[in-house]
Design a protein that fits this description.
Blueprint: H1 2-10, H2 13-29, H3 33-36, H4 38-46, H5 58-69, H6 72-85, H7 88-113, E1 116-117, E2 123-124, H8 127-135, H9 140-156, H10 158-175, E3 182-185, E4 188-191, H11 192-209, H12 212-241, H13 246-258, H14 260-264, H15 271-286, H16 293-297, H17 305-333, H18 345-355, H19 360-393, H20 398-414, H21 420-444, H22 446-451
Helix pairs in contact: 1-21, 2-7, 2-21, 4-17, 5-12, 5-17, 5-19, 6-15, 6-17, 6-18, 7-8, 7-13, 7-15, 7-17, 8-9, 8-21, 9-10, 9-19, 9-21, 10-11, 10-19, 10-21, 11-19, 11-20, 12-17, 12-19, 17-18, 18-19, 19-20
């Protein structure tokens, strides 16, 4: 109850209004940059700069950022938002993402402009440096607050518990839905599928994160495009197989965004609830305004802040406007959001089983596979973010970073045994507390972004 109360307070109207207002303000000041330069942004995404300095390619930096954002939010988060806020939540999710693209552009630009590069070529950048170097040394305390919550989000929030929980649930629901094979652990009964999935995941995460940014970027460059295309193709098949229901689904989403009672019969919240759930889950998914993506963007091999800003902006487009919208459409098309008793990933599983022209087992297997890959890459991306935050806090102390890595691996191991509601709420709280310092910096440095 205490965690839920804190979550409702920090994710109340003030933060949602601040994130949306920042996006709208930057969109206006930058003259609709997300529409005018989207084509150029996609071109830069695949075309590396030849003499740029940094640790990974622009595409590698984008894939690291996307590995952190394309996660359970795209499958479980969208389902949760629609289940709680009605189909209208999807509309607000897309609106938040549109303005979030301008926010993400500013974040990527400032990350390159104010990053620091050591003699040995090690790059460190992100909100803590654009706060300290852009706003001035007297704002270092704000940078430290961001770094503290950033490390916390990785360890106790998006990075570990939510993702591991989703992987373990998906594997259990597929291999052992009736809990036929259980074992007693930590005072509870768990399926062997959950335990085995947890152990394998911990080993895989350990092998990658102990290799640092280069290994994380290499793994992300392979997995992220593969999993995004696989998911895209599967959902497009689902939509094409139910194409006659598409106009009605779009109409339902738009009507529910403004007059939810007409669609839901008053069963699911008000317009404010739809807006709150849609915006909150949208931000949770694409992380525009949170300040996480610029940490990855700072490592890109480029000397052009604007160029990296444009590349960063494509992340929000791919993550929310494409992938979340496809998930949401499949849920509304099939009526999965109206089925009583379903929550989280079960809603999306129902949509896949009902909408795809394949046997139920195959549809559930494809979704489980996507969820496992989505969540696995998010775990990797957030380890990198957390490490960088810790490096800043402890003045690049190697021992602190190594300790953090091992703590991270331990959190991945215990993740499957945490309760779902508490896990998502803790992640939400850390997310919100991280956003405030970053949004203050983006508004303060908006003049620099416009000038560049």
């Amino acid at each position: 109850k205490i965690i839920t109360a804190i979550d409702n307070a920090v994710w109340g109207l003030p933060l949602i209004c601040l994130i949306m207002a920042t996006g709208i303000f930057l969109t206006a000041r930058l003259g609709l940059v997300q529409i005018r330069h989207l084509g150029k942004a996609f071109k830069f995404m695949f075309k590396d700069e030849e003499d740029g300095s940094g640790e990974v390619t622009s595409f590698g930096a984008l894939c690291t950022a996307l590995s952190a954002t394309i996660g359970t939010g795209n499958i479980t988060g969208v389902a949760t938002a629609i289940a709680l806020g009605g189909p209208g939540a999807l509309f607000w999710m897309v609106i938040a993402a549109f303005f979030g693209m301008a926010t993400k552009y500013a974040e990527g630009l400032l990350a390159i402009k104010y990053r620091t590069i050591d003699e040995d070529g090690h790059v460190l950048g992100g909100p803590f440096y654009y706060i300290e170097n852009g706003m001035g040394k007297k704002w270092t305390w704000l940078a430290k607050i961001f770094a503290f919550f950033g490390a916390g989000v990785g360890l106790f929030g998006i990075g570990t518990f939510t993702q591991v929980n989703s992987i373990a649930s998906a594997v259990k629901n597929f291999f052992d839905p009736d809990m036929a094979h259980t074992v007693s652990l930590f005072g509870g009964n768990y399926s062997w599928a959950t335990v085995v999935a947890g152990v394998i995941l911990t080993l895989c995460v350990g092998l990658v994160v102990l290799g640092g940014i280069q290994r994380i970027a290499k793994v992300s460059e392979v997995i992220v495009p593969f999993m995004a295309i696989l998911y895209f193709v599967v959902v497009i098949i689902l939509i094409l197989c139910n194409i006659t229901a598409l106009p009605a689904a779009i109409k339902t989403i738009v009507i529910a965004a403004f007059t939810p009672k007409a669609v839901t019969g008053g069963a699911v919240g008000s317009m404010l609830v739809a807006m709150q759930k849609g915006v909150a889950r949208g931000i949770f998914s694409n992380e525009a305004g949170l300040g996480s993506a610029p940490i990855a963007a700072a490592a890109a091999q480029t000397n052009e802040p604007v160029r990296q800003g444009l590349v960063s902006m494509t992340g929000t487009f791919i993550d929310t406007i494409v992938i979340c919208t496809l998930t949401g459409l499949s849920i509304v098309l099939t009526g999965a959001w109206k089925v009583p008793g379903l929550e989280g990933v079960q809603v999306t599983t129902y949509a896949f089983q009902k909408g795809l022209p394949f046997p139920n087992e195959f549809a559930a297997f494809v979704l489980m596979l996507c969820l496992v890959f989505f969540a696995f890459t998010t775990i990797l991306g957030w380890d990198y973010y957390g490490e960088r935050c810790l490096e800043y806090l402890f003045n690049r102390n190697k021992a602190a970073v190594t300790t953090y890595r091992w703590l991270y691996i331990i959190c991945v191991f215990i993740g499957p045994y945490m309760t779902v509601a508490a896990v998502w709420n803790i992640a939400d709280i850390f997310n919100a507390l991280m956003a405030f310092p970053n949004l203050i910096a983006l508004l303060a440095l908006s003049g620099v972004v416009v000038k560049e």
